[in-house]
Amino acid sequence: MTAAPDTVVVEADGGSRGNPGPAGYGALVRDAATGEVLAEAAVAIGEATNNVAEYAGLIAGLRLALDHAPGARIEVRMDSKLVVEQMKGAWKVKHPGLQPLHAEASDLAPADTTFTWIPRAENADADALANRAMDGDEVAPGPVGSAADEESVIEEIESPGAARTEREQDQAGHRGWSPPTGAPTTLVLVRHGVTKHTSAKKFSGGLGGDNPPLSEEGLAQARAAADWLAGLGDRVDTVVASPVRRTRETAEVVADALGLPVEVEPGFAEMEFG
């Protein structure tokens, strides 16, 4: 008889084609020691937003872990920065459509559960399950290879009208900066501070090659921008930067002044030169 695992890893994801639109989630549970998949699920949940689908995946993953590895310590790994930071208590749950889902996940998660953000590429299995659900190829929650049925993890999804006013949906996946209806999102663009290459009129390129840090002058410029932005207070919801060093360092100064984390978006990276 195989010994019960001491620790399991929950990998979960969710998606919506249209945001809001046809949505589904994927979740699986692994033995942390062996990597063996113990249970999985891929379920469509009707029309919903990305964030709702991601929370649905988390809830399903926690239930799978509790059902198939009772007593095991749980580590949750997701590529949704929003869900991970909210479950860790670092970010507030502002949207009323997410509050009951956050509460349900919090009730399910044992006290020693840890939540870890991972890049999307490292969450490929859960992402594939979510896409299967949205394609109509569902996997009923249960052990791998089982056809056991189970009630949907969400009995009532927020209405399309409520979903269209959701502002926090963009913080997780950056799938669009402005909701289809409601108040528009204001985007403030901050140019990064100067580096030694700026003064020498050299190209620094993107992620590779000689990519210098901000100079003292560049740090002073970043602090000046941060001082101005600090006057906006809680009207700023998120700080996003490309992975390029000079932009990250500028964003960190700004984010520190605002009391916010920095979200790195690879799609903002400057193209390479040469």
Descriptive account of the structure:
The protein has helices at 50-68, 81-88, 99-108, 124-134, 160-163, 169-173, 196-199, 216-230, 245-258, and strands at residues 7-16, 21-31, 37-48, 73-78, 114-117, 139-143, 239-241, 262-264. The strands form 2 sheets. The protein has a 6-stranded mixed β-sheet. The chain has a two-stranded parallel sheet with strand order 7-8. The chain has 2 domains: 7-173, 2-Layer Sandwich (Nucleotidyltransferase, domain 5), CATH 3.30.420; 196-268, Phosphoglycerate mutase-like (Rossmann fold, 3-Layer(aba) Sandwich), CATH 3.40.50.1240. The protein has 274 residues and is an alpha/beta fold. 39% of the residues are buried. Helix 8 runs parallel beside helix 9.
Shape: elongated
- State the CATH superfamily name of the largest domain: Ribonuclease H-like superfamily/Ribonuclease H
Q: What profile does the largest beta sheet have?
A: 6 strands, mixed
CATH class of the largest domain: Alpha Beta
Strand order of the largest sheet: 5-4-1-2-3-6
Helicity, as a percent range: 25-40%
**CATH architecture label of the largest domain:** 2-Layer Sandwich
How do the helices and strands line up, and which of them pair or pack?
Layout: E1 7-16, E2 21-31, E3 37-48, H1 50-68, E4 73-78, H2 81-88, H3 99-108, E5 114-117, H4 124-134, E6 139-143, H5 160-163, H6 169-173, H7 196-199, H8 216-230, E7 239-241, H9 245-258, E8 262-264
Parallel strand pairs: 1-4, 4-5, 7-8
Antiparallel strand pairs: 1-2, 2-3, 3-6
